Amino acid sequence: MSNEDSLAPLRSRAYELADTGRYADWDGVCAELVKEGETELLARRLTHDKFFQIMLLNRIRAARERD
Question: Domain spans of the chain?
Fold first, then answer.
Protein backbone atom coordinates (compact mmCIF):
# COMPACT_ATOMS: atom_id res chain seq x y z
CA MET A 1 0.00 0.00 0.00
CA SER A 2 1.37 3.39 -0.94
CA ASN A 3 1.89 6.18 1.56
CA GLU A 4 -1.06 8.13 0.13
CA ASP A 5 -3.33 5.07 0.23
CA SER A 6 -2.51 4.56 3.91
CA LEU A 7 -3.88 8.03 4.64
CA ALA A 8 -7.16 7.52 2.75
CA PRO A 9 -9.13 6.11 5.72
CA LEU A 10 -7.80 8.88 7.93
CA ARG A 11 -8.81 11.53 5.38
CA SER A 12 -12.25 9.98 5.10
CA ARG A 13 -12.77 9.99 8.88
CA ALA A 14 -11.57 13.60 9.08
CA TYR A 15 -14.17 14.59 6.48
CA GLU A 16 -16.86 12.76 8.45
CA LEU A 17 -15.91 14.67 11.58
CA ALA A 18 -15.81 17.98 9.69
CA ASP A 19 -19.32 17.34 8.39
CA THR A 20 -20.69 17.17 11.95
CA GLY A 21 -20.25 20.91 12.46
CA ARG A 22 -18.69 20.35 15.90
CA TYR A 23 -15.21 21.55 14.91
CA ALA A 24 -13.96 25.01 14.01
CA ASP A 25 -10.70 23.96 12.37
CA TRP A 26 -8.22 21.19 11.58
CA ASP A 27 -6.76 21.28 15.07
CA GLY A 28 -10.11 20.29 16.54
CA VAL A 29 -10.59 17.50 14.03
CA CYS A 30 -7.03 16.29 14.55
CA ALA A 31 -7.50 16.24 18.33
CA GLU A 32 -10.61 14.11 17.90
CA LEU A 33 -8.78 11.69 15.59
CA VAL A 34 -6.08 11.28 18.24
CA LYS A 35 -8.73 10.82 20.92
CA GLU A 36 -10.26 8.07 18.77
CA GLY A 37 -6.91 6.27 18.79
CA GLU A 38 -5.08 7.61 15.74
CA THR A 39 -1.45 8.38 16.33
CA GLU A 40 -0.77 12.11 16.39
CA LEU A 41 2.21 11.70 14.09
CA LEU A 42 0.09 10.11 11.36
CA ALA A 43 -2.77 12.56 11.82
CA ARG A 44 -0.39 15.53 11.67
CA ARG A 45 0.96 14.33 8.31
CA LEU A 46 -2.28 15.62 6.82
CA THR A 47 -1.40 19.09 8.08
CA HIS A 48 0.98 19.47 5.14
CA ASP A 49 -1.56 18.37 2.52
CA LYS A 50 -2.75 21.77 1.27
CA PHE A 51 -5.58 20.43 -0.91
CA PHE A 52 -6.90 18.36 1.99
CA GLN A 53 -6.73 21.38 4.30
CA ILE A 54 -8.74 23.52 1.85
CA MET A 55 -11.36 20.82 1.36
CA LEU A 56 -11.62 20.14 5.08
CA LEU A 57 -12.06 23.82 5.92
CA ASN A 58 -14.76 24.13 3.24
CA ARG A 59 -16.62 21.19 4.75
CA ILE A 60 -16.25 22.56 8.29
CA ARG A 61 -17.67 25.92 7.19
CA ALA A 62 -20.56 24.35 5.29
CA ALA A 63 -21.46 22.15 8.26
CA ARG A 64 -21.35 25.06 10.69
CA GLU A 65 -23.53 27.17 8.38
CA ARG A 66 -26.17 24.39 8.36
CA ASP A 67 -26.40 24.41 12.15
Answer: 3-66
Q: Write down the number of H helices and E strands in the chain.
A: 4, 0
Say if CB 31 and CB 19 are below 8 A apart: no
Could you give the CA distance from residue 27 to residue 22 in angstroms, rounded to a whole number? Answer: 12
Rg (CA), the chain: 11
Give the pLDDT band of residue 21 (cuts 50, 70, 90).
Answer: very high
Q: What's the pTM?
A: 0.87
| Contact (CB, 8 A) for 66 and 21 | yes
